[in-house]
Structure formats: structure tokens, C-alpha cells
Amino acid sequence: MTLAKEHIFEFLKKHKLMQVATVGDFPWIATVYYVFDDEMNLYFLSGEKTLHCQQIKQNEKVAVAIVDSHQGLNDKQIGLQMYGVAKQVSDMQKINFVLKMWKQVLDVKDDQLSYENMIKNVIKNRVYKISPKRIKIFSKELFNVPTGEEPVLEL
Length: 155
Fold this sequence. Notes:
This is Pyridoxamine 5'-phosphate oxidase N-terminal domain-containing protein. The chain is an alpha+beta fold and about 160 residues long.
């Protein structure tokens, strides 16, 4: 069986948190909420002064892991791993699109969260986009293969 985009979308819909690994002078990992678009790009909001965002400025290559932390050791484990390129989003239309998704998907009720307030620096967070280059889902339910032999989607 091959890994299809539908598998990835179904997985992404079920979760809200991801771990983003970055590297500058040393590796770092941050847990952030995310939303995604039809091209499997992941978006998160974070402050420019956070270590992971500072490192993204230095090195745009990132790794991502998304798992259900409620899985038991004996459960059929499922998770997603990817690597890609992260960049701060500056386009007004794209930021508004992401903020609208952010509010709908994550049920955010913050009226202050807007492009205008980001420009005025009322909101310190900025929008970041991760464009995936390689995605792997490990799932014994979907793919009954030995660990390490799971199908991969190259983009």
C-alpha cells in the first residue's frame, strides 16, 4: 500500500499540536498548535523572539512530529513525521487566510488576533509556514510493514 495525500489529511484533521525541531548553534524542539491547507502546508503562530523562530531565520530546514500522546505502549501506534522548509509569512492575504483558519479550526475567540494588530505589534506572534518535502505516517493499521519500512510521500 502506498501513502496517499488522503491518509495525511485524515491524520492532520485529528490533531492540533505538533513538535517542530529546528537547529541553529544547537538543536531545539518546540510544541505548537497548527492548521494546514490543501497543499499540506502547516501553519503555526509564534513569537519572533522564541528560540525556534530565531533558528528558523538562521536555517529554514525543520522536522515535524505529530502524535497522539494518549496512545498506550501496547496500542497500534500512529504518528506523522516530516521534514520541510519553514518561513515567516509576510503576505497580507495569506496571513488573513491562516488567521481565519486558526480561529475556525482551533476555536480561537480572540478578537485582537488580526493582521492589523500584528502590524501594529499589538499581537507579538507571527505566522509561520512549513512546506513539507517528505512525509511519513507510521501506522500498523494502515501499513502492516516492519518499523522503518513505512511508505513515504516525497514532495
